[in-house]
Design a protein that fits this description.
Alpha-Beta Plaits, elongated, 121 residues, 2 helices, 4 strands, four-stranded antiparallel beta sheet, alpha+beta, single chain
């Protein structure tokens, strides 16, 4: 978005879910063998622990990158995700910063909202 735009404000929201919402073919959701399962095996718990360790490290790396390229983020923790939001940084630059470090679009949820400024036609 053009930073000199006088008609609307771009609000960028990155949601980093602790567990992915959409699984690619061949990926195994770590809670599939734990939630509502009788006779949960130790291997399933170990797999979940390994997944969470890796996932949380990836989230923290993405947060580090975004905080380095822009310093005006509101960061909020929720029970199932971390939310980073700003109105002063273009989402294209943020996505490119993550992509340049090897992160893929399936590792985060990006929402962009536009709000019209009052009094401007």
């Amino acid at each position: 978005m053009n930073p000199n735009n006088e008609t609307c404000v771009q609000r960028v929201l990155f949601l980093f879910y602790f567990e992915k919402k959409v699984w690619l073919p061949g990926e195994k959701p770590p809670l599939r063998d734990i939630i509502k399962v009788k006779n949960v095996q130790p291997e399933a718990v170990r797999y979940f622990a390994k997944f969470m360790h890796t996932r949380l490290n990836r989230i923290s790396e993405m947060m580090d990158i975004l905080l380095k390229v822009h310093d005006n983020w509101a960061v909020t923790g929720w029970k199932d995700h971390i939310l980073m939001e700003t109105e002063s940084f273009d989402f294209n630059d943020a996505v490119n910063a993550l992509a340049n470090q090897g992160f893929h679009e399936d590792e985060f949820v990006l929402k962009v909202e536009y709000t019209r400024k009052w009094g401007v036609l």
